[in-house]
């Protein structure tokens, strides 16, 4: 990028303009956590119908437009805490025993959607939850986005 062609550039050390304060865009923050849990997928034609375990990685993207007086959209510390508290409900459990997965199969898809709406409840009104991804293994993930 050639910043000398940027309308904001007024010479060395002289970047200026309201875009530096507002910009008009939005910010996305991403955090990740994990939990260990077993599950079985009744009805699945393969070994996953039997009880087995995964280290599940969960990645969330939140977004918003307005920064606080410190210059943050939302403190990483807060979204990490909220995600961690959510995942504690599932950690070292058999997912098939944890509601609502006692009634629906604990596939990565169902997990991603259920977790999305649970996490969304913890966010303030000016922050939106964009997507939540569940990695069942380092090479397989599902992303839920409303
Ligand atoms: N779309 C989905 N596909 C599968 C899900 C799922 O939740 N959503 N789940 C499974 C099973 O949980 C299975 O444990 C994972 O299967 P797989 O990806 O095949 O993982 P493996 O480690 O057993 O695979 P390798 O063959 O060792 O690579 C299946 N599919």
UniProtKB/TrEMBL annotation:
Its cofactor is Zn(2+). GO terms for molecular function: 6-carboxytetrahydropterin synthase activity. Pathway: Purine metabolism; 7-cyano-7-deazaguanine biosynthesis. Keywords: Lyase, Metal-binding, Zinc. The keyword DNA repair does not apply. It holds the Pfam family PTPS. It catalyses: 7,8-dihydroneopterin 3'-triphosphate + H2O = 6-carboxy-5,6,7,8-tetrahydropterin + triphosphate + acetaldehyde + 2 H(+). Its EC number is 4.1.2.50. NCBIfam families: queuosine_QueD. Belongs to the PTPS family. QueD subfamily. This is 6-carboxy-5,6,7,8-tetrahydropterin synthase. The gene is queD.
């Amino acid at each position: 990028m050639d910043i000398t062609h940027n309308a904001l550039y007024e010479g060395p050390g002289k970047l200026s303009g309201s875009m530096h304060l507002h910009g008009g865009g939005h910010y996305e923050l991403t955090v990740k956590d994990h939990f260990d849990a077993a599950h079985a997928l009744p009805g699945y034609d393969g070994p996953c119908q039997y009880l087995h375990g995964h280290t599940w990685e969960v990645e969330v993207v939140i977004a918003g437009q307005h920064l606080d007086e410190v210059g943050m959209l939302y403190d990483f510390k807060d979204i990490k805490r909220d995600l961690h508290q959510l995942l504690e409900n599932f950690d070292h459990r058999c997912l098939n025993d944890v509601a609502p997965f006692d009634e629906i199969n604990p596939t990565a898809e169902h997990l991603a959607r259920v977790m999305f709406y649970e996490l969304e409840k913890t966010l303030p009104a000016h922050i939106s939850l964009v997507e939540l991804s569940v990695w069942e293994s380092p090479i397989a993930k599902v992303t839920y986005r409303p």
